[in-house]
Amino acid sequence: MTGPRPVVLSGPSGAGKSTLLKKLLKDYENVFGFSVSRDCLTSVASPDYYLCWQAVNPCSILLQHPLVLLIQHTSTSRLIQLGEFKAAIQAVQAQNQICILDVDMQGVKNIKKTDLNPIYISVQPPSIDVLEKRLRDRQTETEDSLQKRLHAARVDMELSKEPGLFDLVIVNNDLEEAYSELKSVLADEIQKAQGSKKS
Ligand SMILES: Nc1ncnc2c1ncn2[C@@H]1O[C@H](COP(=O)(O)OP(=O)(O)OP(=O)(O)O)[C@@H](O)[C@H]1O
Question: Where does the record place the Guanylate kinase-like domain (predicted)?
């Protein structure tokens, strides 16, 4: 498949993925096909394995099994084959855009079983204390959901250390430094997407 490689963006809730993504989307218009986030996934029965799609057509995708995905729209859901999921990502590539997949650790491991060949990036907070402060300041969590996110974050922070799992682990302490690291690792793909648009 020609076209820029997709990008897997993972990391604990509150680590700063959306903040970094927004900067990319603002600075590089038309370079990114669509973004994928886990946060629109609220009503799926088994939230363990999923990819969640926030695109032109917001819906979520539950990666229940390496070969079967559940796409959940606001009111309807349907199962699709991995092939259809891959085709959707490849359609973005075919437009010479970088497809961003914002997935949890299980999503990362499931995508590793495919031949999509993305760049794997983990965004991590400098510490659990800083993460807690950011999540509290964001004012999006109840005490219960905050504690769940902090628990999941501790697990994610440990798992992200697994050698070879990610091409790059960005510790998002200073936002501009983290953004600069992100841009560096994406430089070749951004250039491909921009170059192909000029020709
Ligand atoms: N480097 C930083 N320094 C200080 N605050 C930051 C930094 N990066 C992000 N934040 C703030 O931390 C909060 C969480 O960031 P953000 O919403 O981007 O996280 P996220 O990883 O996308 O979370 P989720 O997965 O829940 O969407 C936001 O309020 C954001 O403004």
Answer: 4-187
Cβ count within 10 A of residue 88: 18
Distance 149 CA to ligand 1 centre (A): 13
The interface predicted TM-score of the complex, written ipTM, equals 0.99
Q: List, for residues 40-88, the tens digit of each pLDDT value.
A: 333 333 333 333 333 323 334 443 333 334 444 433 444 445 666 677 7
142 C-alpha to ligand 1 centroid (Å): 16
Which of 133, 89, 167 is closest to 80 using CA atoms? 89
Within a domain: residue 1?
no
Cα pseudo-dihedral 61, 105, 189, 70, rounded to 10: -10
Q: Say if 198 falls within a structural domain.
A: no
**Can you give the residue range of the structural domain that contains 65?**
7-193
Nearest residue by C-alpha to atom 14 in ligand 1: 14
